[in-house]
Amino acid sequence: MQVDQGGKFKWWGIVPALLALGLMAGMDFGYLPLSFLPSSIRNSAATLVFWLGAGVIGLYLLHAIWLALRVQRAMQSPRHRNRIQFLLLTLTVAAIGFGLILSQNILLQEVGLLIHWLASLLLVYLSITANLPDIRTSVKESLGFMIIVSFTMVIYLGTIYALEKALASTSRSHLKTAFVAAVVFTLLYPPLRKALLVSVRRLLFRRRYDARQIIKEYVQAINNILIMKDLIAVSLSFIREELNIQHGAYFLTQRQDKSRYYFGIHPDSHQALPKTFSLKKETLFARRLAVEGQSVSQYSLDIDPQFCNADPLCLQTLKQMKIEQYIPIKRNNDLIAILAVGPFSSGESYALRDIELLSTLANQTAIALENARLFDNVRQNLEEITRIKTLTDNIFASIESGVITIDTQGQIVVLNQAAYRILNLPPTLQSGGNVNEIFKYLQGTPLPALLRDVKNTRRSYRAYEISPKIVGRGQVDLTVDLSPILDSKKQFKGTAIVINDYTETKQLQVVQNLFRKYLSPAVVDRLPRNPEELKLGGRRQEVTVLFADIRGFSTYSENQSPEDLITVLNKYLSIAAEAILAYEGTLDKFMGDAVMAIFNAPLEQADHPQRAVKAAAAMQRNITEFNKVMGGYAAQLSFGVGIHVGEAVIGNVGTQARMDYTAIGDAVNLAKRIQENTPAGRILLSERAYICVKEYVHAIPHKNLSVKGRQAQEETYELLNIL
How many Cβ atoms are within 10 Å of 627's Cβ, its own excluded? Predict the structure, then answer.
């Protein structure tokens, strides 16, 4: 037969041999009549056909032998190579028999026919037998036997010859020779034969081992190892070195379901294998290992039809691992692991003695693996408990709120660092003390009564405000949360107390409320968030600057008392300020009867020009409404508003003791100049401001202004209304 690289049979290789056999059989049995040919030609034709057929068959046999040699070199498994060697032996015997049949000697032809039949019987035996004897071992044992026999004959003949020579001149030489020879063979031959046998085995076979000694040393090596990784490494290293095995691995059972076993693969350091592997329970391979507890060879998986129902992907994965033998490791009738070993370094196949030793080692490993798994589970649980405790301690330590937990007896279970800081507790007060020790530092508060109520009613309290006087801190403002601690059965197990210190927050709120009367709310709101920005200096950015001035206020003030004047001024300025703040502008400053505002600072606003225009329109509308409602009681004043968009430096100006948040630059000056030229009740926009809002407003050109410090005049627009 011929097989291509894809595993498909090539029929063309056998066709010439079949044709040659057909011609030879046709001529032998007379199916090809050649009587019409002359006798000389007929004889020559028959001879030609005979030798042509013989040559084709001979070439086919040689080609088959060559293919078998190629396959043998490619095979990694010793047992597969052994089967190919059996095939080579069969083909060689067939070729010898065929060669003798072709001879002209009748006797040789008969012998060749017998040899040919012997090859046929070998081929049948090869086809129906799965576990073939190892040829190399058989040859080596035969060779060893011949060496021992030859040595025995040499010793026997040499001793007899030497004694006859030495005792030839004495009387009764034959009797003396026999007696001395008997003594020599009784005393000297056995140790010599034993030494020769050991030498022959060392020469012909791999290193032999003492199974009992290996088992004893193996148990001592793994007995006290509780770390799984170390146990696997020591076990595989011992087996590899003592049995002279190329490589090995453990398949540890991770889990199983109704249909599969799932293994984690742990190889030795000499081989790279997949990390995981699964095996169907319904396969014969799984039943042999898990149910019957028998070892399975890779050779059986490859050629035995009983294993054909195994998962093809599983078989392919196992074949790629180059494993020779799989030995189950069971504990309490459960498959906990598989010991997988590769081929012997000597290239020999596994014998029954080897498999029995590996099974014994696997049984000893089962106990060690179980102990290592139990230890690993305990270690993981301990690590998890330690991790959770550390995490809990870190959480409690990092919480700004004081956390106190109390059991049913009033004993302190948890007391974090924030609670020490907030209540100014002494370091001597530790977990395990009584909660009454804490109440000493909270005298005059309803906390003890609240604690009793939580215990009796299982009620929770949220953000309960107390203001105790604490030694070393004085009057503080605290909020207290109290919650019952219940188990899974809703049984009371203690109380959790969470204390928040908002003393500084409350003080800051008072200060902020005071500052809001003097500063822009946007500036006040950002003070606690970005204290790093409260320093001298600023940054350049685009802003919209709005100036609004009360027209006619100077004339009006000539006939008013200072008290009435301040009242009117505050009313009109508050109307302007409310309009600016409604569109989230920043009140920069009040300058007598004028107000300055900026938009897009400190908070960025994508639509800051529109906001400034809307604020100005709202300001004029609110002034008109106020004058209309008040009638003759109002001063009937109005605003002139100027708006410009440009770059300015925004930041803190002044000293570290007193600073203002403001805008400085040419854009501010231009907005001020536009406002100074705005008629009463009107709103003027610079050209830049108009360009930014022209899609949203209705405005008409007003006039060009000559601004101090600028050569070119500034074109302005009067805002009529918002679209």
Answer: 17
Residues making up the chain, counted from first to last:
723
Asked if 288 and 325 touch (Cβ cutoff 8 Å), the reply is no
In the chain, ranges of CATH 3.30.450.40 domains: 211-376
Helix (H) or strand (E) holding 609: helix 608-630
Q: What is the 3-state secondary structure (H, E, C) of 119-164?
A: HHHHHHHHHHCCCCCCHHHHHHHHHHHHHHHHHHHHHHHHHHHHHH
Query: Helices 78-101 and 39-74 sit at what angle, rounded to 10 degrees?
Result: 170
- Is the Cβ–Cβ distance between 490 and 506 less than 8 Å? no
Taking the CA of residue 293 as centre, how many other CA atoms within 13 Å lie in the half-sphere pointing to its CB?
Answer: 14
DSSP one-letter string for 559-580? TS-HHHHHHHHHHHHHHHHHHH
Q: What are phi and psi of 565, to 5 degrees?
A: -65, -45
In the chain, CATH 3.30.70.1230 sits at 535-722
| Cβ atoms of 586 and 602 closer than 8 Å | yes
pLDDT by residue (tens digit) across 684-705? 999 999 999 999 999 999 888 8
Tell me the average pLDDT across 576-592. Answer: 89
pLDDT reading at 303 higher than 80: no
How far apart CA 653 and CA 658 sit, in angstroms, is 9
pLDDT of residue 68: 72
pLDDT at 289 over 50: yes
Task: Output the DSSP codes for 433-449.
Answer: SBTHHHHGGGTTSSHHH
Residue 515: count other Cβ atoms within 10 Å of its Cβ: 15
Residues contacting residue 201 through CB under 8 Å, at least 6 positions apart: 144, 208
Architecture of domain 211-376: 2-Layer Sandwich (3.30)
- The set of residues, in sequence order, having a beta carbon less than 8 Å from that of 579 and lying 6+ positions away, is 615, 616, 618, 619, 622
Give the residue, 125 or 4, on which the prediction is more confident.
125
CATH code of 399-501, in short, is 3.30.450.20
- Rounded CA-CA distance 496/481 in Å is 8
pTM of the predicted structure, to 2 decimals: 0.43
Is-contact 272 263, C-beta < 8 A?
A: no
- The pLDDT of residue 1: 41
Average pLDDT over residues 137-151: 76
Whole-angstrom distance, CA of residue 78 vs CA of residue 98: 30
HSE of 54 in the Cβ direction (CA atoms, 13 Å)?
A: 14
Question: Cα–Cα distance between 63 and 16 in angstroms, integer?
Answer: 13
**How many CB atoms sit inside 10 A of residue 722's CB?**
15
686 burial (CB, 10 Å; 0-12 / 13-18 / 19+) is buried
- The hierarchical CATH code for the domain 535-722 is 3.30.70.1230
For residue 707 the two structure tokens come to 């601004």
Which residue did the predictor score with more confidence, 672 or 13?
A: 672
Q: CATH 3.30.450.20: which residues of the chain? A: 399-501
Q: What is the CA radius of gyration of the chain?
A: 54
**How would you list the strands of the sheet with 334-341, edge to edge?**
276-280, 260-267, 248-256, 334-341, 325-331, 296-297
Contact 323, 342 (CB under 8 A): yes
Q: Residue 255 has which token pair?
A: 């889990």
Cis peptide before 274 (omega within 30 of 0): no
**Average per-residue pLDDT in the chain?**
79
Phi and psi based region of residue 291 (left: phi greater than 0; alpha: psi -120 to 50; beta: remaining)? alpha
Residue 649 near residue 690, CB atoms below 8 Å: no
